[in-house]
Specification:
The complex is a heterodimer of chains A (210) and B (275). Chain A has one domain (11-186): 5'-nuclease (Rossmann fold, 3-Layer(aba) Sandwich). A six-stranded parallel β-sheet of chain A has the order 4-3-1-5-6-7, sandwiched between helices. With 210 residues, chain A is of the alpha/beta class. Chain A is globular. Chain A has helices at residues 18-24, 36-44, 66-76, 97-110, 127-135, 151-156, 174-180; strands spanning 11-17, 32-34, 48-58, 80-85, 116-120, 139-144, 159-162, 167-171. Chain A is built from seven helices and eight strands; from the N terminus they run E-H-E-H-E-H-E-H-E-H-E-H-E-E-H. The longest helix of chain A has 14 residues, at 97-110. Helix content of chain A is 30%, strand content 22%. Chain B has 275 residues and is an alpha+beta fold. Chain B has helices at 65-69, 73-86, 88-162, 164-173, 247-250; strands at 2-7, 9-10, 16-20, 23-27, 40-47, 54-63, 190-191, 196-200, 203-205, 213-219, 224-229, 235-238, 241-243, 257-264, 269-273. In chain B, the strands form two sheets. An eight-stranded antiparallel barrel of chain B has the order 8-9-13-12-10-11-15-14. In chain B, strand 8 (196-200) and strand 9 (203-205) form a beta hairpin. In chain B, helix 3 (88-162) packs across helix 4. The longest helix of chain B is centred in the middle third of the chain and has 75 residues, at 88-162. Classes of the chains: A alpha/beta (210), B alpha+beta (275). At the A-B interface, helix 2, strand 8 and helix 7 of A face strand 10 and strand 11 of B.
Chain lengths: 210, 275
């Protein structure tokens, strides 16, 4: 039993390290993909969501950047997407992303923009930032899949959410897949370059994070 | 000496002359401007001093197309007023005939515009009503869920009151986390009113599936399925049946059987245990 209790008046900010989540979800979920809106709903609970940030890398401007459309989709849903340039043409190596996320967490903490920071990543590189945020009097929750979770992260945070147990993978209707004629379009792939394409998903009506 | 408007033409003696107040008007031959037959002029008239029976006219301004173009607005107004007042009986039926058709067209156009505007207003209001109905429906669902929750809590309270010692014992031996505990957002689940039946490898059926679209989410450990109705859901419900591609890969199908399911107020949907 945790000594920490939730307050519906808590202002929370969610920081999602997209690459970490992508790597965590196994490629065998042929007909499922992470629903980031549901992920935020699960983590938010009854509390007040101030913002949900997504951090990722992007390709060169003149190159065909497959992630751009997905970033736009997330923005359309109400996420604040921060995409840093990737110096690797295949986007297998990301640069600046973790630091950008850590900076945002600490900056918002010192500006008293939130009460609770939820870090959606199991990467222990964030531990110094988490400690700094905690030192600023804020609570830090970590949400991660067991496949990418660092034990030290679980120890460091105030509350840990095991994403393995959260129903956040969206099942895609078979008819949708057949209509699209391209099952790959809705498939999660562990390789970054084609990790998610939205070819069968037209931009929906702007419902935002509810 | 007076001024007047005179139309000049050939008279019986082939002289160029006109008439003014019943008296013949002849051209003043000493004047520089020449009056031709068939023209209308504003002239300065002087009575013949010897006979007093005719006028001599000094031309001032010829009345033709250019004269009308050069007229100022107040002059035009005065002229129109004069013409209207003195020729009303002739002009009125003529103008009435012309403007009846024009006015009818204008009225019809105005009516059409107003009708279109009203139709748009009706459409907007209908959309607003639909939106409000949707909110009402969602609110009703929330109220129903909350009422169920309250009933459940009441039932639990009654149980605790009837068995105080047992309840106390339970609490002391294994304290439950408070409702607002972060440990998994502890909440009270309750059994679904309508059982969910696995009818095929990728199909779930329930009498509770009454909406047309649902969101269905799976946990990464493949143990929990969340079914939540939503107008924008990506799973279509046909005949109270949801077809979930890939369900058989998550949970192999052996035979038709009911699934363990509970309503979750936290998720706002039904949690189905996959086992």
């Amino acid at each position: 039993m945790s000594i920490i209790s939730y307050d519906a008046n808590d202002r929370i900010m969610i920081f999602i390290d997209l690459r970490n989540i992508v790597k965590s979800v196994s490629a065998d979920s042929k007909y499922s993909r992470v629903d980031y809106v549901s992920l935020v709903r699960c983590l938010k609970g009854p509390r007040k969501l101030i913002a949900a940030y997504v951090f990722d890398s992007k390709g060169a401007i003149d190159a065909t950047d497959k992630s751009k459309r997905f970033h736009d989709y997330l923005r359309y849903k109400g996420f604040r997407v921060i995409a840093r340039d990737s110096y690797d043409p295949d986007q297998n190596v990301q640069k600046e992303v973790d630091v950008a996320m850590a900076v945002q967490m600490v900056t918002h903490a010192y500006k008293n923009n939130y009460d609770v920071a939820v870090v959606v990543s199991g990467d222990r590189d964030f531990i110094p930032a988490i400690q700094e945020v905690q030192a600023a009097g804020k609570r830090v929750e970590v949400a991660a899949f067991s496949t990418s979770k660092s034990d030290e992260m679980e120890r460091q945070c105030d509350v840990y959410h095991n994403l393995d147990k959260e129903p956040i993978l969206s099942l895609v209707n078979l008819s949708d897949v057949l209509q699209d004629g391209n099952t790959e379009a809705v498939r999660w792939n562990s390789t970054i370059g084609s990790r998610l394409t939205m070819t069968n998903t037209a931009l929906p009506t702007r419902t935002g994070i509810r | 000496m007076e001024a007047g408007v005179v139309r000049f033409d050939y008279d019986d003696r082939s002289n160029v002359s006109g008439m003014y107040h019943g008296k013949r008007v002849y051209r003043d031959n000493n004047h520089i401007l020449d009056i031709s037959p068939g023209e209308i002029w504003i002239v300065s008239l002087s009575l013949n001093p010897s006979t007093g029976q005719n006028y001599f006219a000094k031309p001032l301004k010829r009345i033709d197309g250019s004269f009308l173009y050069e007229m100022k607005k107040d002059q035009i107004d005065s002229l129109s007023k004069y013409l209207w007042e003195n020729n009303r009986t002739i002009l009125q039926p003529f103008l009435q005939e012309i403007y009846e058709s024009v006015m009818n067209e204008q009225i019809a156009k105005a009516v059409r515009e107003q009708t279109a505007s009203l139709e748009k207003t009706i459409a907007d209001l209908s959309a607003q009503i639909d939106g409000l109905n949707r909110i009402k429906e969602e609110d009703s669902k929330i109220i129903a869920a909350k009422e169920d929750e309250v009933e459940l809590l009441k039932a639990e309270l009654l149980m605790m009151e009837s068995k105080p010692s047992e309840a106390a014992g339970t609490q002391s031996s294994a304290p439950r986390p408070p409702e607002d505990s972060p440990e998994g957002f502890a909440e009270k689940l309750k059994p679904s009113k309508h059982p969910i039946i696995r009818t095929g490898p990728d199909t779930l059926r329930s009498d509770g599936f009454r909406k047309s679209r649902y969101f269905v989410h799976l946990s990464a450990d493949h143990k929990t399925l969340l079914i939540r109705d939503d107008p924008n859901g990506n799973v279509v419900c046909i005949d109270s049946t949801l077809t979930l591609a890939g369900l058989s890969t998550v949970l192999p199908f052996d035979s038709e059987r009911p699934m363990e399911s509970e309503y979750s107020p936290r998720y706002g949907g039904t949690l189905v245990t996959l086992r």
